[in-house]
């Protein structure tokens, strides 16, 4: 009996349907390649179906790692037509020494956490396959790239250099910085995302043109962080919070390999102190725009993700904000991606208001760690109900729960599966 036959659940069918042999596409229509933080979230769900498949998911992603340690945000599949997604491999002009074609930017570093959870799902299989020993040096190099090459503000925090690197592409937190960017000419590229999703759910053509220009500038400077004149560079609280969580996970990996966990615990402590000192204001974490050194006056779900950090000193204040009028945790569907009272709030447009399943999963993890059992259980129930009711939508309206974006979305299925199985 195959694992597909062994688990006929709806979430499992989505993951099996999006499996390509060594990795899982987020969506066959909208995202037909392998995405970085998607694969990490997908592996967290796959570990309940097949720990080995979860390990392979992550190992296949690590094959796209560059010599400098970065893990690009897209690992392009040679079996997919080159123009099926834009920007595709011809635009990025990037590849590993072994010839794997990739993008040149990165995504949030949730990978070490995914590796540790995949290992815990079947430790004997992990040891048999040498999974942790193979992943550890790659993760060390990945974190070193971020801390050594992306501390652009000199504050001990990692900076993103493109909205896509945040994973929250169209967030209102990027509006001010993006307004400085001259967009690529409208006729110089052809969008593919609007072939598969409603225009009203996606970024505007103007913003997309700015995304393209930022990526082209980085490409034309050969993805050199020291040489590129970044028009967009911000310290993002979600990105840094996930690096902290992954440093804690990497400490556990090191310990399991009989290595010293202290460097990872020290890195996590240093990052946590910098995060609280530099980005916490008005009860929430905010992004800092390195162009002017100012915190961005836009409150987004990225500012709540630090709830998952172990022993976060401002956790009580942050939880109060999550439950307050800006996000209404426990009162609306999951967790809105942007301040419900904010001037740029749109309930259906990509990262400008809708609730997402991956951020809900991260906040649920934080609530469990804080001992907030009632809130955590309510959020878990909401995630499971919405995932089933929307055919595993990419994201939903925070008031109505209406499905938005793609359906049969892999991380939605994977994280719903995790919340269901992890409670058994």
From TrEMBL:
Q: Which terms are listed as keywords in the entry?
A: Glycosidase, Hydrolase
Q: Name one Pfam family in it.
A: MGH1-like_GH
Which residues belong to any copy of the Mannosylglycerate hydrolase MGH1-like glycoside hydrolase domain?
Answer: 31-412
Q: Give the Basic and acidic residues compositional bias ranges.
A: 190-204
Q: Where is this region: Disordered?
A: 185-204
Domain of life according to the entry: Bacteria
Task: Note the InterPro entries from the entry.
Answer: 6-hairpin_glycosidase_sf (IPR008928), 6hp_glycosidase-like_sf (IPR012341), Glycoside_hydrolase_63 (IPR004888), MGH1-like_GH (IPR054491)
Which family does this protein fall into? Belongs to the glycosyl hydrolase 63 family.
Identify this protein by name.
Mannosylglycerate hydrolase MGH1-like glycoside hydrolase domain-containing protein
* Source organism of this protein record: Kribbella orskensis
């Amino acid at each position: 009996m195959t694992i597909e036959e062994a688990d006929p659940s709806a979430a499992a069918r989505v993951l099996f349907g999006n499996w390509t042999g060594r990795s899982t596409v987020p969506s066959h229509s909208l995202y037909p390649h392998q995405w970085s933080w998607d694969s990490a979230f997908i592996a967290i769900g796959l570990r309940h179906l097949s720990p080995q498949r979860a390990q392979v998911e992550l190992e296949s992603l690590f094959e796209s790692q560059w010599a400098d340690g970065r893990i690009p945000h897209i690992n392009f599949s040679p079996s997919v037509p080159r123009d099926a997604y834009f920007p595709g491999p011809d635009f990025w002009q990037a590849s590993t020494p072994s010839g794997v074609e990739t993008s040149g930017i990165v995504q949030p570093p949730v990978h070490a956490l995914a590796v540790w959870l995949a290992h815990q799902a079947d430790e004997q299989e992990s040891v048999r396959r040498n999974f942790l020993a193979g992943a550890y040096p790659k993760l060390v190099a990945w974190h070193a790239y971020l801390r050594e090459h992306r501390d652009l503000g000199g504050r001990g925090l990692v900076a993103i250099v493109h909205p896509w690197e945040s994973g929250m592409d169209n967030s209102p937190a990027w509006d001010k910085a993006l307004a400085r960017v001259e967009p690529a000419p409208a006729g110089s590229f052809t969008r593919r995302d609007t072939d598969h999703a409603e225009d009203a759910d996606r970024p505007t053509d103007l913003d997309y043109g700015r995304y393209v220009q930022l990526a082209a500038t980085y490409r034309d400077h050969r993805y050199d962080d020291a040489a590129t004149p970044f028009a967009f560079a911000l310290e993002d609280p979600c990105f840094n919070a996930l690096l902290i969580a992954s440093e804690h996970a990497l400490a556990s990996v090191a310990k399991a390999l009989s290595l010293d966990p202290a460097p990872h615990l020290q890195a996590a402590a240093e990052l946590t102190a910098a995060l609280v000192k530099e980005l916490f204001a008005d009860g929430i974490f905010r992004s800092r725009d390195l162009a002017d050194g100012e915190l961005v006056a836009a409150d987004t779900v990225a500012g709540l993700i630090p709830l998952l950090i172990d022993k976060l000193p401002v956790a009580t204040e942050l939880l109060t904000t999550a439950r307050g009028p800006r996000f209404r945790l426990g009162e609306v569907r999951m967790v809105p991606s942007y301040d419900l009272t904010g001037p740029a709030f749109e309930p259906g447009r990509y990262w400008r208001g809708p609730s997402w399943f991956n951020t809900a999963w991260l906040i649920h993890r934080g609530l469990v760690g804080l001992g907030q059992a009632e809130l955590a259980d309510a959020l878990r129930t909401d995630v499971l109900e919405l995932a089933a009711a929307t055919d595993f939508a990419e994201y939903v309206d925070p008031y109505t729960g209406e499905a938005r974006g793609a359906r049969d979305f892999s991380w939605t299925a994977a994280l719903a599966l995790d919340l269901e199985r992890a409670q058994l």
